[in-house]
Each structure stands twice: as C-alpha cells, then as structure tokens.
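TEACHING EXERCISE
Course module: macromolecular assemblies
Task: Read the component lines below, then compare them to the predicted structure of the full complex.
Student: A.B.
Group: 4
Components provided:
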Amino acid sequence: MNPEEVVTSVLYLLRHASAEEKIQKLKCSSELIRCYQYLEQTSRSFAAVIQELHPELKDVICIYYLVLRGLDTVEDDMTLEIKYKKEVLETFYEKLYIRGWSFADSGPNEEDAPLLIEFDVVITEFLNLKKEYQDVIAKITREMGMGMSKYTTKKVNTVEDWNEYCHYVAGLVGIGLSQLFVASGLEPSGIEKLEALSNSMGLFLQKTNIIRDVFEDVIDDRRFWPIEVWSKHVNLVGDLINDKYLTQGVNCLNELCLNAIEHIPDVLDYLSQIHDRTIFSFCAIPQTMAIATITLCLNNPKVMSENVKIRKTEAIRVMKQKIAPTDAVFLKKLDILEKNVQLKTGPSMANSKYEYVRGFETFEAVLPMTFMVVRLDGQNFTKFSADHGFEKPNDIKALELMNFCAQRIMSKVSDIIFSYGQSDEYRYKTFSFDL
Ligand code: D61
Ligand code: MG
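Instructor-supplied answer key:
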C-alpha cells in the first residue's frame, strides 16, 4: 500500500464509525435495527452508500434492497427443486403482505439464508412504509421474480438474452429506484420515465459482476456468459478457464467488456440528471467502482484463473468522493496531510534552485465527480486518407489505426478511464478521483 492509500484508509476509518456503532445509534424499532444488520451482512458494496442517503429515502432503499436480496437468495440456490423454486420466485411479491412469513428451505451453502429465515422482520418494516413506496417495491419484486423464474429453465444464449437476464436482475432495480427517488420528492418527476437510462445503470453493474466472476461461476456450474459469444472463441464453457485456451478466453473477455462499456454513456447521462447530492453519490459510487473493475478486467488474463477485485484502498478513495464540498476544513486537513506525506517521501527542494517547481505541486482541486474530456482531433486527415488510399466514409484500416493509437495512449496515460472515437477524432475521459 502506498503512503497516500494508508492515509486514505486511516482517515476513512476515522471518519466512518463502524457499521455496528452506527446501527446501535439508530433510534428506531428493533426490527429496523435487524434490517440494517442484515444490510451490512448481505451487501458488501451497497450498505455504506445506502446509509448515507437522505433520511426520507434511507429506510425505503434498505428495505427495497433486502426484499430483492431475499428473492435473489432463492434464485441463486441450486439445491431447490425447479418447480418449487419457480413457484416461490413468482409468488414472492405476495409474501410481502403476509405478516410473519419467512422461508427456511434454503440450501446449506446459501450465505444469505439467515435473511430469509428472519424475513418476517423485513415484512414488518415493508408494511411500515408509505403505500407509494410499497407499490413500487412490490411491482419490481413481481417482475423480477417472473424474469428469474423464466431463466431458471432458459439458458442465456444470445446477447439479447444476456441483456434481458440482466434487465430482470439489475435493470429493474434501477427502474424501481428512479420511481422511489421521484416518489420521495427529492428528485423532480422525469427521471422515472427514462427507463432505458435506469436500465443501463443496472446492466452496467450486473454485466461487470458477471464478467469479473467468470472463474468462480464456471467452477460452480453457473452460466451467465452468453453462449452465442463464448462459443465463437472456445468449444466448451469450461475451456474459458482452461490455461490451454487462455488467448481465446481473453478475446472473449474483451468482447464482453466492450459490450458492457457501451452502457457508460447512458450511465453518465443518468447521473447528469440527478439533483440530490446523497442520491448522486448513492448512484455514482457503485458505477465508479464498476468502471474501475471493468478497467481492471479488460485484457487481463488473471480474470480467467482467479477472482480479480479492485483494491480496497481504491474503493475507499472512490467512497471518499462523497465528502461534501462544505467539508472544506476537513479537506484542507486531508490536503495538508497528503502534502506532508508527499514531502516526507519526496526529497525536499526548499532553498534550492528548484524551489520554483513547488509551484507545480499545488493541488488543483476540481469538483467531485468531474469528468474531464480531452478531444484529440485528426489533423490533415483528408490528405492522410488520400496518401493511404482510405475508402470513405469508413475504412477499416483507418478505424483500426485510430483504435490502436487510442489503446497506446490509454496504456500510457492510466488516468484515462474511457475513450471513444467519432469521425476523425478521439475523446478521452479522465475522472477526478481526488479532490
Ligand atoms: C443506482 C444505484 C444502484 C443501483 C442502480 C442504480 C441500478 C441497479 C442496481 C443498483 C442493482 C445492481 C445489481 C448488481 C449486483 N448484482 C446482484 O446483486 C445480483 O443479484 C441481483 C438480484 C438482486 C438485486 C438486489 C439489489 C442489489 C443492489 C441494490 C438493490 C437490490 C436495491 C437498492 C439498491 C441497490 C447477484 O447477486 C450477487 C449476490 O448474490 O451477492 C446475482 O445473483 O447475480
Ligand atoms: Mg442471483
């Protein structure tokens, strides 16, 4: 871990009371405290961002998460008899209105089985929510249950199937969230109608997970990579994690990464429409993690032989983003401490002819979540095209050359997280991780 990451982790831990401390401080029913304990237990990535949400939405989203996590625990359970599983998935939304209902038939390896065994506490808190929130959660649960039931017997063959499966298990989550944001009054009406953008928010997260988890999933006989894609590269799905077919596996990996990356423009579009700061962080942080994860997976042979994950410190750095700009004092302290660490680690240049370079060390702060776009425009492209006999309007040689140049630039400038070409120019997006 480099010094900056040490600082980041320590300050993050200082700033963030342990989950248990936070939960105990909650002045609310024992059932709701139980729900927040289950949120911490069942979600590595969403628990922290949900608890930073505006008070009007925090409990609603916590219950929304637990209801769908309960449903997913039935879906992921490979020990349940198919007919029974389909029935439980398709009628799960009805159980939300049956006080005291719980589910004790989970298989022995289901990590989240305790949530279903004590699901009655989730139902109690669900029924405490305003009706408009209940209606959204119940409708999404019904549609997701139907979709999950369909894919218990249907394979993910085509890329369309992949999009449809990810819609059922993640796109619907985004569509429901947009409706809850508007129902809370924290977001103006409009975002709930942009279902395609909300859907892309879910698809990018789910596809990134499915791509990252291929090694574990193939080992556990779970099949989420579309057959239509991997069968172009290898004959058997097991070959994907077989060293002998590593090149083919990585080519398939890259094809799916590029497919997932196509959702990012929608994600940016969606984020640019969010007004409430807590909702913005809640939406943007998981997406930022996913961008960091897909960047890590792209062209990375390790994905085919182990479960790659972005470093915890990287994750904390992203989380740090949510420090409100008003916390300038805190930021100032953070800044100074960071500079001190740099100074301690870098040779001191004070009172030397290099004193002036310190001017370049000053930390240029940009607003959190700022995307910088660098546009590289082709110069004398017409002459260049003529010299190389490029066909108009698109010549594959020219496009491949531009892609090749872009890959070289991205391999050199690691701050660039995303780039795309259009006509004779390329745009490179960098992202302000640090303030
Ligand atoms: C803005 C902010 C958060 C968003 C969003 C927009 C749009 C979609 C999502 C979150 C959902 C992203 C899902 C990605 C992680 N994949 C899973 O959890 C898979 O299960 C999917 C079915 C259950 C969904 C539960 C869920 C997840 C996140 C939420 C939420 C509900 C409600 C509110 C906020 C976030 C995966 O499960 C892995 C596991 O079992 O641990 C699977 O089984 O494929
Ligand atoms: Mg699942």
